[in-house]
Known about the structure:
2 copies of one chain form a homodimer.
Chain A: E1 2-6, E2 14-18, E3 24-27, H1 35-40, H2 42-57, E4 62-63, E5 79-82, H3 86-96, E6 108-111, E7 123-125, E8 132-133, E9 136-142, H4 151-155, E10 158-165, E11 168-169, H5 170-179, E12 191-192, E13 196-197, E14 206-207, E15 210-211, E16 214-219, E17 222-228, H6 236-243, E18 254-256, H7 265-268, H8 273-284, E19 297-302, E20 314-320
Parallel strand pairs in A: 5-18, 7-20
Antiparallel strand pairs in A: 1-2, 1-13, 2-3, 3-4, 5-6, 8-11, 9-10, 9-18, 10-12, 14-15, 16-17, 16-19, 19-20
Amino acid sequence: MKLATLANGRPDGRLVLVSPDGERYAGAEGIAPTLQDALERWDEVEPALRALAAELAAGGGTPLAGEALEAPLPRAWQWLDGSAFPNHGVLMQMAYNSPPIETDLPLMYQGMSHCFLAPTADVPVPDEAHGIDFEGEFGVITAAVPMGTSAEEAAGLIRLVVQINDWSLRTLAGPEMRTGFGWVQAKPACSVAPFAVTPDALGEGWSRGRVCLPLEVQWNEAPFGRARGDVMAVSFPELVAHAARTRALPAGTIIGSGTVANVEYRDVGSTCIAERRAIEMIEHGAPVTGFMRFGDRVRMEARGADGATVFGAIDQQVVKG
Amino acid sequence: MKLATLANGRPDGRLVLVSPDGERYAGAEGIAPTLQDALERWDEVEPALRALAAELAAGGGTPLAGEALEAPLPRAWQWLDGSAFPNHGVLMQMAYNSPPIETDLPLMYQGMSHCFLAPTADVPVPDEAHGIDFEGEFGVITAAVPMGTSAEEAAGLIRLVVQINDWSLRTLAGPEMRTGFGWVQAKPACSVAPFAVTPDALGEGWSRGRVCLPLEVQWNEAPFGRARGDVMAVSFPELVAHAARTRALPAGTIIGSGTVANVEYRDVGSTCIAERRAIEMIEHGAPVTGFMRFGDRVRMEARGADGATVFGAIDQQVVKG
């Protein structure tokens, strides 16, 4: 089952279901007006949503042709982002000669959640000197999760899987990280691909609480990376349990994987510029690649074994904000 | 003008106005159903709110007698907490022999905002071993703040002033801070005193973008601290501008001062246990005071020059969650 949100002038948009191939949609507002509402009443609304999804799979619905797709949750009560691909951290530490992060717990920060940008929205940044970078990630959207939920229990509370661009301003990020307080200025609004997908609909693309798909990234239409999501050192259920250790999570909490990164980076590239620069620093002593400029575009998309889009594409440009 | 939220079984409660002495209230749901709604339509609703506040000040309204007061915003789209009292940081660094935080920018982290505890609600914590601590703070609630707003402009976008207990789990806080990612597990839901007050109603208690009032803290009914809020190194308008450098803030954003702390800590005490422990470590080589136990109570209240309560009291106990 694929869910999406169409713009309707209201903050949460309106809920629609999308056909498995992402080509057609059907309004679901008769079942739940918004995705947030559906998540809060999931057990009650899921049968009707599944029935509508079956009609779509059988060929029903209206062609998606230029409808304004929002982020599945244009705003959420909570966004917690992990850093679960160890090779990303290893490269950054080698490049910047910084000590390894000492922790035996998953890494996680809380980011802004009152606005998630639409997948084709312009991305406003005040200054190119901030070091504008994309970060390709996968994420999950949870049911309500009680405090103290185990990873085993959390696996059953993952309602949807999403694909995220966690926009980062690198010049601001290092100084903020060194305060220990995490990131505020360095992490403006994320963008989210248009389709939120139930884990069962991912088939072999969802295993061991991980998204087993490559995330293709293009920067100004040139291939930049194609890293796989299956090598997370910490699974999504473990990230959810970590987040819920001392707090209850509300339905609609979004939890991210951190930048998708593989040890075979020479073959698969990277899903953020900072990591490519780190590799250049390690291999050549200095970074060669610059960060994004106003007018630059980034495209991110995951495709299944059949070549079909899974979450739809993020495809957007950076503009002066 | 004092605003408050009464419990009505819904997530955002219902908006009421409270008399200057905090003794009487009048329902304001005819003007705006919730405080969040009022903040989103402030210019439109302020005249009617002010007219109702004048009736209350003239003796109207109903006695507040046991009504269930929620946090003014039981949930908010964003909570950003500063650390604007330098003596708090100085003491913590001396006690833990940690290097000074290298930054010339205000310190700030993003915390959970989907739940703010009512001022008398029990505070659930899973384990006493987490180092349960209170942190007495002041905070502001903003209008919508455009990205790039200056501190001068931000001063006019502060709608309300609040008093906050930023609950902290100290055993978890140090390791999370050392990751650079900020706090997730160490910062469960904050509590907020019942009355949100417009800056003009604070009189001499609001000057230079700071709350010029002492914050009285009692732990299990024994005086613990009475630190003044006027010595913030960074004002609230400066904190708002810092938060808005690379993002627009939605109406209803809550921005905190960090732990209220004074250089005269020998006279005025502290507003968190960690700071008292730091002083003990500096003066005696080891901490003497333990953290909170289940069943312990904390009370926090700010009083004006006339001795009257300003924000109402936070008065609550810690329970096993």
